[in-house]
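Recap from last week: sequence in, structure out.
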Amino acid sequence: MLGPDPDQQRRMAGEMDRSIEQIEREASSFINRLVLRWAVRWAIVFAVIFAATRLVDWLDWLWWIALPIAVLSLGLPLLLRRFLMKRLTKVRGSFGGFAFGETIDGSWRDGSGGAYDDRPARGEGGEPRGVIIDQRPQDKDDRL
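Predicted structure tokens:
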């Protein structure tokens, strides 16, 4: 049999999937807490700015400073979360066929069943795909 053990591959794929799901859950809970803290913090800041602008007319410029800062302080973590989720999806996609008899790059196949490759054994230009190991017994007369 060429390539890694199919049972080991299934276990590794399961562990990888559980790890990615745990990272997604932790990232989502972190972002939820961050957004909640952001909402409380900026509600207080906006209430103070509102009270200050009601008392003193010339403090209206505070709104022009506070609003962009509030938008940026919420937008950057949300963009970070989006980037992280895209990366996790890409990682999950790269390990998608891992449990079905192939490695990450698809160069090894399990010859004892499972998912078979319907693609031709030779790639473009007649070159063989992947690694070919010659396991034929050598005759003593054929040695150099």
